[in-house]
Design a protein that fits this description.
The complex is a heterodimer.
Chain A lengths: L4 E12 L2 E12 L3 E5 L6 H8 L7 E6 L12 E4 L11 H10 L9 H7 L15 H13 L5 E5 L7 H16 L3 E6 L2 H7 L2 E6 L2 E7 H5 L18 H9 L22 H6 L31
Chain B lengths: L9 H14 L2 H25 L6 E2 L2 E2 H4 L4 H13 L2 H19 L3 H5 L5 H34 L6 H29 L5 H27 L6 H6 L1 H5 L4 H4 L3 H24 L4
Antiparallel strand pairs in B: 1-2
Helix pairs in contact in B: 1-7, 2-4, 2-5, 2-7, 4-7, 4-8, 5-7, 5-8, 5-9, 7-8, 7-13, 8-9, 8-13
Classes of the chains: A alpha/beta, B mainly alpha.
The complex binds adenosine-5'-triphosphate and magnesium ion.
Adenosine-5'-triphosphate binds next to strand 2 and helix 1 of chain A.
């Protein structure tokens, strides 16, 4: 079993009625890295995270965290924020953390002050959460996730509701945690946010992973090129993927009449890494993407249907 | 990792955390205050009636003359007051708050994303609620018992108090059944109001079915007495046996109700999708 992987997801699928929110998703998150999980609104990021944490039942697929696949045991040493963190509003910030701590194994107790300190809430810890601003609640959520000094921190859009300074603080915190050896899995629909902190990135569109690799490689300018990189796309429903990718800001889909992807695989090292992980039956894969380094505010388009 | 002993280690911390939530919000506090006040109210009313302060007639006789008060009897009235409508309603409400409301406001997911089997989480909540019910009973009894013992004439032998004392103990068993029923309904509804309505409708349906059973019994269609005694409504009133004789069938029904509801609630809670 590969224990150098913090998270290993294979073939994860989850449907809501007829809608497939996550489809045959494979993710490999190396231990000790910051992994960016990038995708537009509705692409299935939160659903995938819920499945990893055992909050949602998966229709298919396997999840293991540090080599442990038992749905309860794999959560030991994992701290998480999923969507907007919620609290017992009538209790203080500290009391909220105390209640959460009671649910942790005993050897993970005793870290409340440290967690509050890290997010800068120590001085407001005795105020009721109902009096917290949105940003304070977000930070309290991060503190709650840090209880018990997890090995893996899962952050689903952690900078929601934060002002620019708050966002910088969170980035800084993530970098520091990573330096201390924590694996951080951060989801976002903002490429800039992922770029700023992540070493590795997985891009998900419509519940499918369309690329995974090191950020530096995915974004590296290939020689003689204007800082652009090409990645190949593949998958059973290639047209849909092409349409989705086309909605990414700063990314353009190359014409279809290019040769078969296999022929052009040497262009960027990223491609070799990303290619084997793209979707399965490759019926004439298309070409892909140019991600310019200096992206303007790169907001991914929401999944409109 | 959490200990393998189902109720060892971190389990009691979980129970304490749930109890802390219950006791730190108005619903829990008001429930306990009412628990303590009801016996005083009953005591005051009884004294008023006994002393002729209430000038009412029943069948042409003054009420006071029908009303021979003694300590155990008054403690029985207090028990009836404790178990009649208001406090059970509060118990249903706070139980729904720990599951249905936490699901609706998404605080549940933070608890369930931690390394505990869900059945342990539900059991911790159940134990905390049962503890709150016990505190409520002890509170009522702690206020009402001394009032009856010290300020009402009547037999001072232990035997005379035994029946009603058992009635108080039995009402904890009834509360255990009611909480289990509420947790079960909380796996179907995510609003406190929905759960309240569900419990009330369920008990009304139970009443109707027992009415039908009674008719069937009068027509001697089939033996219906035991069946009626097993029904939830009767089972939840098993504590009433202190006055008119204990009914083992009611307690059997209560046991089945409690375990059955807990089992199904756990099964559903274990499998539900948490958003
Ligand atoms: N509980 C649910 N019931 C039905 N459909 C759902 C549910 N949760 C998610 N979905 C659907 O699954 C898809 C993926 O949703 P998800 O919340 O995982 O996306 P996301 O990538 O986290 O988006 P965002 O960036 O907006 O947070 C969407 O089409 C959504 O409508
Ligand atoms: Mg999301």
């Amino acid at each position: 079993m590969a224990t150098d992987l913090a998270i290993s997801v294979t073939g994860l699928t989850r449907r809501f009625g007829a809608r497939v929110a996550v489809q045959s998703l494979d993710l490999s998150v190396p231990a000790g890295t910051v992994y960016g999980f990038l995708g537009p609104n509705g692409s299935g990021k939160t659903t995938a995270i819920r499945c990893m944490l055992g909050l949602l039942r998966a229709d298919a697929g396997k999840v293991s965290i540090f080599g442990e696949s038992d749905p309860v045991r794999r959560l030991d040493g994992v701290g998480a924020i999923i969507e907007t963190p919620r609290f017992y509003a009538w209790l203080s910030g500290r009391a909220n953390l105390e209640i959460c701590e009671a649910y942790l194994p005993e050897h993970r107790h005793g870290q409340i002050d440290e967690a509050l300190e890290r997010v800068g809430l120590l001085s407001r810890a005795h105020d009721k959460v109902s009096g917290y601003s949105l940003g304070m609640q977000q930070r309290l959520g991060i503190a709650r996730a840090l209880l018990g000094r997890p090995r893996l921190l899962v952050l689903d859009e952690p900078t929601n509701g934060l002002d620019p300074q708050g966002m910088r603080d969170v980035r800084e915190l993530i970098r520091r945690l990573a330096q201390e050896g924590m694996t951080v899995f951060i989801s976002s629909h903002l490429l800039s946010e992922i770029q700023a902190v992540a070493d590795t990135v997985g891009i998900v569109l419509k519940g499918r992973r369309v690329a995974e690799g090191r950020v530096s490689e995915l974004l590296r300018a290939s020689a003689g090129d204007s800082g652009a990189v090409e990645i190949e796309l593949g998958g059973p429903d290639l047209n849909a993927i092409r349409r989705e990718v086309a909605t990414l800001d700063g990314v353009s889909v190359l014409p279809r009449d290019r040769p078969h992807p296999g022929a052009r695989a040497q262009r960027a090292p990223a491609r070799e890494r990303a290619q084997p992980r793209l979707g399965q039956p490759r019926r004439g894969a298309g070409r892909l993407e140019r991600a310019r380094r200096e992206l303007r505010e790169p907001v991914l388009e929401p999944d409109r249907e | 990792m959490a200990t393998t002993n189902p109720i060892g280690g971190v389990f009691w911390r979980m129970v304490a955390a749930e109890l802390r939530k219950l006791l730190s919000r108005p619903s829990g506090v008001v429930m306990l205050v009412i628990s303590a006040l009801l016996p005083i109210l009953v005591f005051g009313l009884a004294k008023l009636v006994e002393g002729g302060g209430v000038n009412m007639n029943a069948n042409g006789q003054p009420v006071a003359s029908l009303f021979s008060l003694d300590g155990p009897k008054l403690l029985g009235y207090m028990l009836t007051a404790r178990n009649f409508f208001v406090l059970p309603l509060f118990l249903v409400m706070v139980s729904a708050q720990l599951v249905a409301e936490e699901r609706a406001n998404f605080t549940l997911r933070a608890l369930l994303a931690l390394p505990n089997a869900r059945w342990r989480v539900l059991l911790a909540k159940y134990t905390a609620l049962l503890t709150l019910a016990a505190i409520s009973i002890v509170g009522s009894l702690g206020v009402g018992g001394p009032l009856c013992f010290l300020f009402v004439d009547g037999p001072q032998t232990l035997v005379a108090w035994q029946g009603v004392a058992l009635g108080w103990v039995a009402s904890l068993a009834s509360d255990a059944g009611l909480i289990a029923l509420t947790l079960l309904i909380s796996t179907f509804s995510s609003s406190v109001a929905g759960v309240l309505v569900g419990v009330i409708l369920g008990l009304m349906a139970d009443l109707a079915i027992r009415g039908l059973l009674q008719i069937a019994g009068m027509l001697k269609l089939f033996p219906t007495d035991q069946l009626a005694a097993l029904m939830p409504g009767r089972a939840l009133a098993a504590w009433e046996g202190y006055a008119d004789g204990w009914d083992p069938w009611a307690f059997l029904g209560l046991g089945l109700l409690t375990l059955g509801c807990l089992a199904v609630a756990t099964f559903r809670f274990q499998r539900e999708d948490v958003l």
